[in-house]
Amino acid sequence: MFSRVKKAIKAFRERRFVIIFSENEGEADLAIPAQEIVAESIIFAARVASGLLCLALPRAFIIKGTLAIIGIWIVGWVIEKLIKAVDRVIHKPPALTDEIIEGLGREDLIPMILYKAPRVEYEVSPEELEAMSDDGLRALLMELRDRQAEEIEWWPLAIIGGVAVLGVGAAAIALTARRE
Fold first, then answer.
1. pTM above 0.90, yes or no
2. 49: buried, middle or exposed (CB in 10 Å: 19+, 13-18, 0-12)?
3. Span 33-54, mean pLDDT?
4. Could you tell me the residue range of the domain that residue 31 belongs to?
């Protein structure tokens, strides 16, 4: 069996068609080197092997494709972060001012405190909050609001993302460039 595989690999490297027969499935497939695919070879393959067409892809093609997919993913991630940052700037929610907090009821204060507390490293249980008065809840929410850290600027993230995309592109070119 291995001698047949070696012959098939050798023929494939010489850019010849290879028929792969699967004894388990009882079918044969025609493998065509990627550089040899033209309309006539596709028609020939459809007549001879109606099954799967196997393509021998060069390593450089695989590396470029993988790096391109990674680059596209990184660009998409950076664009998503930029859109979210711009959206936060344009549609900035109203600040949690003292007047807004004073107007909130108990049913709004408790979920807001439970949401904000872990973000400012403050531990509180729902049972503790239920036992507090409305004024105590308002005071706690104001304290948590004052502890909240500033948001991260978006432009350093954009620069880092741009450098990463350029780095992936440079790596793709460097890895796939022909060596003389």
1. no
2. buried
3. 60
4. 2-56
